[in-house]
Amino acid sequence: MKIAVVGTGYVGLVSGTCFAETGITVTCVDINAKKIEDLKKGIVPIYEPGLENMVRNNVENDRLFFSTSLEESLIDCEAVFIAVGTPPDEDGSADLQYVLSVADEIGTYMQDYLVIATKSTVPIKTAAKVKQKVADALERRGEKMEFDVVSNPEFLKEGAAINDFLKPDRIVIGTDSERAEKLMNRLYKPFTLNGHPIIFMDITSAEMTKYAANSMLATKISFMNDIANLCEVVGADVNMVRKGIGSDTRIGNKFIYPGAGYGGSCFPKDVKALIRTGDEYNRSLEILKAVELVNENQKAVIPAKLKEHYGSSLRGKKIGLWGLSFKPHTDDMREAPSIRIIEELSREGGIIKAFDPVAMEEARRILGDKIEFCNDKYETLVDADGLIVVTEWPEFRILNYSILEKLMLEKVIFDGRNIYDAEELREHGFSYYSIGRQAVKP
Question: Fewer CB within 10 Å, N- or C-terminus of the chain?
Fold first, then answer.
């Protein structure tokens, strides 16, 4: 079986590589010639644990190919996945120009029946637009070729994407065609042999499922952050509250960890896009509007705690910052809370020295000279007035107090992910500020 995947970003590259891992012949297509040449050499443009080795293995075994030519890649192809970016417009809606451009190109070059699957996160009713674009291109050619458009949303967690693809909780496919359903069943059979379900539904429901899933997870995060902020005021410990509600199977213990706000490529964009869709249909999604507002406010919580500790002025304060990516095990900094924290502290005159295990290059591209970039976590603490922990990388979880005491001018930690034990810090003479718990001082 031969397929093509258009787009070698996070979703496209992971999807194409994992399909190749099952023995399918996959060509990943991108207009970026430099990226394609690098991928042919096994140089992966994103950080995802295990992906680079998997790419190289499948390239060496002639299952995974890379090309800038969609026309050549469609030869003898049975399915093509559209996995290009859908960045948010200024009004929050998803920009479909790249998706529809690929659809037009598919219609221009396809030579036989083809299943066209939208893998990109796209607004409801996008499949109909893709279908029309392909049909228009075929009409220009004077061809009456059969094809089907299906919705096949991805549910990948950055940092665990390979496992998510190979061992999915579920596979969602929206289609109104028996022929397309049979082909997609055959394509995904290797992933369902161990009992992982494949759920077929209508196209609109599949498109909605992606947005609804991410919006629900974002809602759980914002809800818990709201509760955490109330816990601080009334004297409750949000960690205890989280354990108390997380043991209820109706709620579950996932995505109820308070923190400095969510970020990344999915939650912020998808919540905005679904809000926009609701407004377009005159159905205001008030809960999601509140989710978005809570999340934006939450990114200001850490700077507020610094002002609480140091007083109204942060001018000249040297602050070490651990973690720049929006979550561990990725270099993705899209909508990362670290950006908002750095911007606010910089405006207040704070001096920030930062380190992240993998996101330094991306951070330099985004932040420029706003901060000082350090070679390791301890370099950030030389003569530091305090430490902020923004991303819960494993290497940040255990503190070496003897080193911290030698390097830092003042022993104070602002923990944006609640990864430390408050009493342990107090015993070592540290002031400690976290999320949803009262501040601890020696």
Answer: C
